[in-house]
Amino acid sequence: MDPYFLLVVLLMALAVLDLVVGVSNDAVNFMNSAIGSRAASFRVILAVASFGVLLGTMFSSGMMEVARKGVFDPGYFTFHSLMFLFVAVMLTDVILLDIYNSLGFPTSTTVSLVFELFGAGTAIGFLTSIERGLDPLSFGDYLNVDSTLRIISGIFSSVGVAFVGGLLVQWLTRMIVTYRLERGLRLAGGIFTGIATTLIVNFLIFKGLKGSVLMGGPYGYWLLSHQNQSLAVLFVLFSVLGQVAVLRGINPLRYVVLLGTFSLAMAFAGNDLVNFIGVSVAAFQAYQLYQSVGFDPRTYSMDAMAEQVSAPFILLLLAGLVMIATLWLSAKARKVSETQIGLARQGEGAEKFKPNTVSRSLTQFFVYIGSLASFLVSRRMATWTDSRFAQDRVTNPRDAQAFDFLRASVDLMVASTLIAYATSLGLPLSTTFVVFMVGMGSSLADRAWGKESAVYRVAGVVNVIGGWLLTAVIAFVTSAIFAAFIYYGEFIAALILTVFALGLVVRSHMGFAEQMKAENLLDDVVERLANSDAPMEQSRRLMASDLHRTADVVVMASEALAGNHKRTTARLRREMKLLLKRQESLELRMVRILKDFKGDGTAAFRSHLLAFDYVSDMSVSAQSLVNAQYDHLMNLHERPHGTFLLAYAEAITLFSAYSARIVQALETGTGEPHAELLAAKRRILQDIQRAIDWALQHYRQGEISTRQARLQSKLLMELRDVTALMYRVHRVYFG
Predict the structure, then answer these.
(1) Which of 353, 286, 227, 279 is nearest to 71 (CA)?
(2) Residue 480 — pLDDT band, cuts 50, 70, 90?
(3) Judgement on whether residues 420 and 565 belong to the same structural domain of the protein
(4) Which residues of 363-387 are buried (b: 16+ CB within 10 A; e: fewer)?
(5) Does residue 694 belong to any structural domain of this protein?
(6) Entry pTM
(7) Domain total in the chain
(8) For residue 78, what are the β-bridge partners?
(9) Are 213 and 427 in contact (CB under 8 A)?
(10) What is the mean pLDDT of residues 684-702?
C-alpha cells in the first residue's frame, strides 16, 4: 500500500481528534456569556450554539485560513517533506490543545496552528536548505516572515484593545442602566437592545457570512453596498421591539445573549472551524496533485499548493457534526468554560488560581490608582457613582447568575464589534483572546473583583495570558522538534510520534476523568451537608472517612519503614498530598453553606468546623511524618535503629486499634466510653514518650546518627499529635 496514502489517512484521523480537542477549548468563545448569565437552560444554550455551528459549516466559504495567510512557501518543499511537515503540525496541535483543555485554560487555536506551521516550516526548511547546499539562514526563502509577524502582532495587540474596550463600555452601560435592570431597562432598554442587537447582526452578516454562498448573489451584493443604511434600519427596528418587550414585562437582553451566542457560533464554524481540518485537507489535495503527475515524491515541488485551498463541502459538514457532538459530550469544554466564568463572576466563590507576586503587585497598583481617583473626585460624585453600582442582596448565592444579562450582552456586543471591525480592516486576531479579555475588562468595570477576590482573579488572568505566550513558544519548539525527528526518521518516526501522541491523549482523558470524579464527590459532600436535616450525622461520616484514610497512611508508612520500601513511601506521600488538597478545596466550600446549614444552626456548624480543623491538622501531621520518612529513605541515610523499629511497631499496633475504635464510633454514631478511650490514648502517648527518651539518650551516647535521631523523633512526635487529635474529634461528636 502507498505509504503516503497512509499518511493522508493518519492526518484525517488526527483532524477528527483535533476537532474534538480544539472545539473543547474554543466552545468558551461563544457559550460562556449565555452560560454565565443563565440566559436559558444548558440544553437550550447548546441547541442554539449547535444550530449556529451547523449553519456556519453549511454556508462556510471553506477556505483554509492559514494557507491564505501564507506562513511558509509550499513551493520550496517537495511533496515528501511537506507531508511530514503536516504530520508534525497535527500531532503537536492535538497534544498541545488537549493539555490546555485538561488544565481548563482557554487558548487560541489559531495561535497554536500558526506557530506550529511556523516551527515545522522552519525546521524542515532549514534541513532542506542544508541538504540542497543552500544557505539555511535565509529564512525568507522558505518562510513568509513578514506575513507571519503581522499575524502575530495583530493577534497579541488585540489583547489590550479588547480589555480596555470591555472595561469602558461596561462601565458606561452600568452607569446608565445600573444593577436594577427593571427600572434601568424602562429608560434605556429599547435603545441598548437596538445597539447591541444591531452590532451583533452586523457581525453575523458581514463577518459570519462573509464569503459564503448567501453573500455571493445579488442580495448579498446589495447588503454589502448598503451596509450603513441596512444597519440604521435594523437599529430602529430592534430598538422598537426591545422597548415593546420591556413594556410588556419581558427582558429583551435574554434574547440578545442567545442571538450573540448563535452569531459567534456561526462565525466560528464558518471561518475558524476549517483551521482544524485545513492542514489535513491540504495534505489530501497535495496527495491528489502527486497522484495526478506521478513524479518522484522526493523531488516533486509543491508550487501548486501556494494557491488558496478550498475544503470540500462534505468535509465541512462532517466537521460541523463532530463539533456539535463535542459541544454536547465534552466534559473538558465545560472545564474550560468554568475557568473563564469563575474569573468573571460577580461576588465570591471558589477561586481556582493562587495569588502570586505579580498578581499582588498589580492588585496593589490598581488599588493605588483607585485611591488616587477617589481623592481627585468629589465625595458627592463618588457617592452617586457608588449608587449606580449598588447591588441587591442575593438570597441564595448558589442559585445566582455568575453575571447578569446586561454584562453578558456587553461582552457579546463588544467582542462581535471588535472582531467585525478588525476583519473589515483585514487585521488577523484571535477570537479566544478577544472574547476572554473583553470578559475580564467588563468584570473589572462591573466591580466583580472585590477585596475578597481581586488578587485571585488577577492571578488567573496573568496565568491565562502567560499560558497564551507559552502556547506560541511550545507550539513552535515542539512542532520543530517533531518535524526534524520525522524528517530523518520518516515513516517510522511518524508512527512512533503518533503512538506517543495517542498515549498522551488517552492518559490525559483518564486523569481528567479521575479529577472530575473527585470534584463531583466534593460537590456532593457539600450538597449533602447543606440539605441534610441531620447535618451533624453527615459531618460525622465525612470526618470518619478522612480520619480512616489518615490512620491507614500512618500504619502503612510504618510498615514501609520497617521494610525500607521507598516506592510505597512515595505512593503514600502522593496520597497525603491529594488528601490535603481535597480538604483545602472542601474548607472554602463548606464555609459558604453556613447560611443553609440546618440543625441547631450556629452551634452545629461550629462543631462541624472544629472537627474539620482537627482532622485537617491530623492530616498535616501525617503528611509531615510521611515526608520525613520519604526524604530519609530516598537520600539513602542509615536505617532507623532496630530497637527503635520494635518500639515504634508496638506503638503503631496500639494506635491501629485505637484509631479503628474511633472510626467505628464515627461511622455508627455510637461513641466509645471516654474513660477507656482516654486510657488507650495515654498508653500510646506514654510509649511514644519512652521511645523519644530512648532515641535522645542513645543519640547523646553516639549510638545513632543525627539523621537517625531526627527521623525517629519526627515520626514519634507526629504520631503523638495524630493520636491526640483523634481523641479531640471523638469528643466533638460525643461530648
Answers:
(1) 279
(2) very high
(3) no
(4) beeeeeeeeeeeeeeeeeeeeeeee
(5) yes
(6) 0.75
(7) 2
(8) 301
(9) no
(10) 86
